[in-house]
Design a protein that fits this description.
Blueprint: H1 6-11, E1 19-22, E2 29-33, E3 39-45, E4 50-56, H2 62-77, H3 88-98, H4 106-121, H5 131-139, H6 144-163, H7 190-203, H8 207-213, H9 220-224, E5 231-232, E6 235-238, E7 249-252, H10 255-262, H11 285-296, H12 304-316, H13 321-328, H14 337-342, H15 348-366
Antiparallel strand pairs: 1-2, 2-3, 3-4, 5-6, 6-7
Helix pairs in contact: 3-4, 5-6, 7-8, 7-11, 12-13
Length: about 375
């Protein structure tokens, strides 16, 4: 046996009888070689040593076959073939590998569950977890939005565990999120905008830089995910897979936003990678926001209020509502329903004009040379 590689697979010669060449790095995984020389990935598993075909070499790659084999072994371990009680960590590993890759916010979901729930629950068997085990963790979260977010991710995970028959009922069944969701209409005053901007500047990269870019009205998760290759010709093109409404969003930027982006350290493709990763977006929202609140001194605001403030200020400057909605990448409102289907005009010119107007206005606000709009 040896570690399988493309070179090793190509070197395997047919014999008079079919044989199975095992990979010594993944239990039961290997290549079946027929007398005719056909090479097929397969997995030998279970007490009966059943050989399950994965796919023919050349049609699928070694990497793809190895991923499938790992999932098959994980499902067997977690009781897909033989029901058994599993630990929180075992179930979470399967959840991350089989469910989250299809989720738009996969990185953030994995980060929250592993950072906040896993340390306390990893050794507990899934059926032994009770409501108070999760509630005690959620109650220790310092900010209300972060506590609600953790509750949502935990509830989603346990509901998945019920569907996979690891649980008969979720420990969070019948419960509600820890803090009520309040419809907000908070718009920052010019003085508050200056305070938040200056605090973000003091905090610096990465969190402070993200907050400053949020003054252009984009969603925080989408801003944190920006890659350098998305930026071209003074436009940030958010791919459909990374935005809430799953539609590509082309957002024009002016000299002010471009100058901010130019100050960001060039450490790779992602402008704001998570600590220790080069392919995952920033995730330290709670700690950063606590510091932002403290240093800005602005009471009762959340980051999403910057998006609402952006829209309100543009409206006060006379920008048409449908142009504001295009900048926000909204799919409802002035251009929805039948109108959205038949009106394919991009409004790129109007959007760029609005952004340039906004950048001049924002510069005046930060310099304290414009009066507050009533």
């Amino acid at each position: 046996m040896a570690r399988l590689s493309d070179a090793v697979i190509r070197s395997l010669k047919p014999a008079a009888r079919q044989y199975f060449f095992r990979d010594d790095t993944l239990r039961g995984f290997g290549v079946r070689v027929s007398p005719q020389g056909t090479k097929t990935f397969a997995l030998m598993h279970g007490a009966e040593r059943r050989l399950t075909t994965i796919g023919r070499y050349g049609i699928i790659t070694l990497l793809e076959a190895r991923v499938v084999a790992k999932k098959m072994l994980a499902e067997q371990t977690l009781g897909n073939h033989a029901p058994q009680i599993v630990s929180f960590q075992e179930a979470l590993d399967l959840y991350v590998s089989t469910h989250l890759p299809n989720n738009r916010t996969a990185y953030e979901s994995e980060r929250v569950l592993k950072k906040l729930l896993l340390p306390a629950l990893q050794s507990k068997k899934l059926p032994h977890i009770r409501y108070h085990h999760v509630a005690d963790i959620v109650d220790r979260i310092k900010t209300r939005p972060a506590a609600n977010h953790l509750y949502f991710e935990a509830r989603t995970f346990f509901n998945w565990a019920v569907r996979r028959h690891f649980l008969s009922t979720s420990p969070l069944a019948g419960s509600t999120q820890p803090h009520p969701t309040v419809s907000r209409d908070r718009v920052l005053t010019h003085s508050e905008m200056r305070s938040v901007w200056n605090a973000a500047s003091a905090i610096g990269y990465p969190y402070g830089s993200i907050v400053q870019l949020l003054f252009w009205g984009q969603r925080k998760s989408e801003t944190a995910a920006i890659r350098r290759e998305w930026i071209s010709n003074d436009v940030i093109s958010f791919p459909a897979a990374f935005v809430k409404n799953e539609r590509r969003h082309d957002f024009p930027i002016g000299p002010f936003a471009s100058s901010l982006i130019e100050t960001i350290p060039n450490g790779g493709s992602m402008l704001f990678p998570a600590r220790g990763f080069d392919d995952r977006p920033f995730g330290g929202w709670s700690a950063g926001f606590i510091r932002l609140q403290r240093e800005s001194g602005v009471p009762g605001f959340v980051l999403h209020d910057l998006r609402r403030t952006f829209a309100t200020e543009l409206a006060s400057l006379g920008v048409a509502i449908h142009v504001i909605e295009k900048l926000l990448n909204h799919t409802s409102g002035q251009l929805s329903g039948v109108a959205a289907i038949y009106n394919r005009y991009s409004f790129a010119k109007e959007m760029r004009g609005a952004v340039l107007l906004w950048e001049r206005h924002l510069s005046s606000i930060l310099a304290n040379t414009v009066s507050q709009v009533a």
